[in-house]
Amino acid sequence: MGTKREPTARQMRLAVELRRLREAAGLSSREAAALLGVNSVQISQIESGTSGVSEQRLRRMAANYACVEAEFIDGLAAIATDRTQGWWEEYRGQLPTPFMDLPELEHHADFRWDVEFLHVPGLLQTKDYARSLFSYVNPEFPQSDVERWVDHRMKRRVIIERPDPVPYEAVIHEGALRIRVGDRSTARAQLTRVLELSEADHVTVRAIPFDLDDFGGAGSAMVYAGGPVPKLDTVVRDGPSGPVFIDAEAQLNRYRTLFRRVEAVSLDPDRSRDFIHRLAKEL
Fold first, then answer.
1. How far apart are the first and last CA of the chain?
2. Backbone dihedral region of 154: left (phi > 0), alpha (psi from -120 to 50 degrees) or beta?
3. DSSP labels for 4-58?
4. Cα–Cα distance between 228 and 235 in angstroms, integer?
5. Are 160 and 109 in contact (CB under 8 A)?
6. How far apart are CA 82 and CA 95, in angstroms?
7. CA 221 to CA 225: how far, in whole Å?
8. Backbone φ and ψ of 138, nearest 5°
């Protein structure tokens, strides 16, 4: 018998939100099960992400928990019923699980924000830039493994290149734009790529120069993926073992505020393009 696959981050998000609703209603698992006409084991399985839930049952649960936020419930129902098996599935078993969860999150996002201080955001990277980055960080990897990581990153760009692209905003510090990942030609091509993408209607690129006064936001790097309602947004940050997904409402509010603060001090899109163009000419 095959090993049961662990829940994806998206499935776990549904499980966590249903548990939060139950706890906010002041109900135990046993009480919630009685209202739903099931046993408490089924509630535990749903809330651990090890068992799916139908839309009908999910809406009954929301009603039992006195949740009246229609758009929020619709968003949960979409998570429960959309079982898209996307391009990322071909990498399952070849790359760590969080790197399957990230493109799935991006695929379903309503919008995407990036803040970067050390590297050009992944969605804007060229293949040569990504290859240089992965090769340096993982010198022990055989070239075939490096190419697998590079291909995975390049395919993630589909969300801003497809016919119905996700609205995307990136705030990039001058440090990330100047650090020469790869050789001079790789760096120049990377800045050119950022400039090309910044011309798209759905892409906004802002730059933060080194000489900005009173800027203490270098610790606020993030990937922010918008859900159908703000409560279903997700922040992704780098951790020791890969991406870390953050979905607690208080933390989401904190990162929204951080993004707006960083956005407010950055150059506007036109000045940012001029700034990046100057950097490219210096190479």
1. 57
2. alpha
3. PPPPPHHHHHHHHHHHHHHHHTT--HHHHHHHHTS-HHHHHHHHTTSS---HHHH
4. 14
5. no
6. 23
7. 13
8. -125, 65
Mean pLDDT by 10 residues, the chain (283 residues): 70 96 97 96 95 95 97 96 90 92 96 97 98 94 95 97 97 97 96 98 98 90 96 91 90 97 96 98 93
State the amino acid at position 69 in one-letter form.
E
Give CA 254 to chain center in angstroms. 16
pLDDT score of 238: 87
**Nearest-angstrom CA–CA distance, 52 and 58:** 10
Whole-number Å distance between alpha carbons of 258 and 256: 5
pLDDT of residue 86: 93
Q: What residue has token string 């760590």? A: 96
pLDDT score recorded for residue 2: 43
Structure confidence at residue 19 (pLDDT): 97
Any residues with CB less than 8 A from the CB of 202 and at least 6 apart, and which? 160, 165, 166, 167, 168
User: What's the DSSP call for residue 92?
Assistant: B
Residue showing tokens 């509010």: 253
Report the alpha-carbon distance of residue 171 to residue 162 in Å, rounded. 22
Q: How far is CA 165 from CA 63, 112, 162, in A?
A: 34, 10, 5
